[in-house]
Each structure stands twice: as C-alpha cells, then as structure tokens.
Design brief:
- The chain is of the alpha+beta class.
- It has helices spanning about 5-20, 65-85, 130-140, 155-180, 185-195, 205-215, 275-290; strands at about 30, 35-40, 45, 60, 95-100, 100-110, 115-120, 145-150, 215-220, 230-240, 245-255, 265-270.
- The chain folds into two domains: about 5-80 and about 155-300, no CATH class; about 90-150, no CATH class.
- α5 packs across α6.
- Bound molecules: zinc ion.
Amino acid sequence: MTSHTKRRLFDRCRKSLAAAGIAVPEQAILCPLCWQQKLLDELTVDHVVSESLGGKKTTLTCCRCNNTYGSSLESDLQALHKACRFWKGGQQLAGELRIEQDRAAVKVQRGSSGSGMHVKVVAKASNPAQITSMEHRVQSGEVQQLQLRLSYGYKSQRAIIALVRCAYLALFRCFGYEYACDRFVQELRKAMANSVSARAQEGERYETSLVLLKPLVVGLSDCNWPFSCAYVIAPGRLAWKDKHQGADFFFVLFRWPSSIGDTRYGVFMPQPGQSEEAFLGPLRQAAAEHASVRLGPVPVGLLFC
Ligand SMILES: [Zn+2]
C-alpha cells in the first residue's frame, strides 16, 4: 500500500476529528479501534474486510490493532468461510474418526445436494495398526457407534468479535469519528477491544463483552440484495413490541464469494443516539426466540459502502 494512500487516509481522519470536535495533537489521530493517539508512523493501512475475503476498502488502524489482533481475527473469519463452504458441499475439512479407543485422521467432504458425507482416512497422519483394527471391526459388523469430529479451525466467539470489528470499521470509514464517538458505539468498541487478546479471553469482562456483541450478528442463508462488493451498509429501523418502540440501525451485510455460493453474514450496528436497551432489546428477544431475521428488498439507492 502506497504512502500516498496512508497520507490521504490520515488527512481524512484529521478532518473528521475536527468535524467531531475531538482535540488531538497536530501530528496525531486516534486509532479507531483502541482510541489511543497515534502518529502517522505508528499507523497502518488496514482492510475493512481482508483481501482474502474479497475486501478492497481500507482505513487506518494502529500497528498493534492491525497486525497483532487483526491478523488473528481475520484467520477466524477465513476458517468460518471454509466451514460454510464445507456445509455447501464444496470444501474438505480435516477431522478425526473414532471407534472406541481407535482413532484415525480423516478428510471429510459433504456431498452436494445433501448426499451424505465422504470420509477419507489420511493414512500418513494415522496409526496403520489402528486403521487395520478399525477396518476389521467395521467389516465384522460389531461397530455400534462411530464418532466423527470435525476441525472447524475457529471459535464462534472470536468470529463474532471479528465480524463486529469489520462492521465497525466499515461505518468508521463511511462516517468517521462523528459516528465512532457516539456513546453506545463506544461501548461496543470497548467491548471489542476488551476481547481481542488471549489474556482478555480468560477474564470475566470477556463474557460481559460477548453478551453485548453476540446479538448483533446474524447469519443469512437467503438474501438477494443486489451487490457485488465485500459489504454494503443499509440504514433501517428495528420494530419492537409496539410500533412506538424501536431503534435505528445500520445493517452491514458481508458477502464472501465462492464458486459454490456466497457466504453472507450481517451485523446490526446502532445509528448514533440509540440506547443499549432500545437497540439490543429486540435483537436479544429475536435470538432467545430463535426468530429468523427477515430482510425485505432494499432500494438500491439506499445501499452504500
Ligand atoms: Zn489501535
């Protein structure tokens, strides 16, 4: 990434800070993720969605937030995308097959159109004596139970944090500090920042942060919004209980392309001025009732990125 791009993004951030009325020293901006003052040299050009998932849009974050935490969260999203492709029948996953005490390393592929699982033993990574023993037992018909364990390679909690991080950066790129300095948006940012390090994930605050972040993320199996980039942002309103209650949101819809069908996830983020209760109430209720989220057609003119 050229220093010209970095300088351009830096100047844009400086203007945005002034517009939001946030005072920082002349040579610095605030990293949108950790909210620490950083000089140009301490900043990196960060992709809102990683290039490996089709992202092209960039913003500035500090070296620590980009390299230390960004890369590991990115790998969780890549593994999530791989798992989604597996369930569509187009991707092999590593796993382990167990018959009582015997075990073998396997590659598993799901048949297209739900035609079962194809399990192939990886001979090199398995104990030959155990493979022979397993074969004998299967052929003799005495096996009552097979256990198949798949390695998805990601933790769902970390994938949630990574998706909210992408949505937050998408909105920061669009609306700058005027969006990011909103009180409730700051709560979400802190919850993300408190959850990214391995040490933080052992603490009590991690659970509290996940309670805040988890209801924001929804998986979408069926969504026909017309767009071809890595994400779009659509404004909307959550209705709750009666029509007078609700909250205004931005829905950030991610699309990760693949030859066997895209993976789509959405993240609800608050518009400025929303309270936690009014915003998270309907989302928590929907999650508790396992209610599906229905997205109506959105006029193309309302989508932006
Ligand atoms: Zn930072």
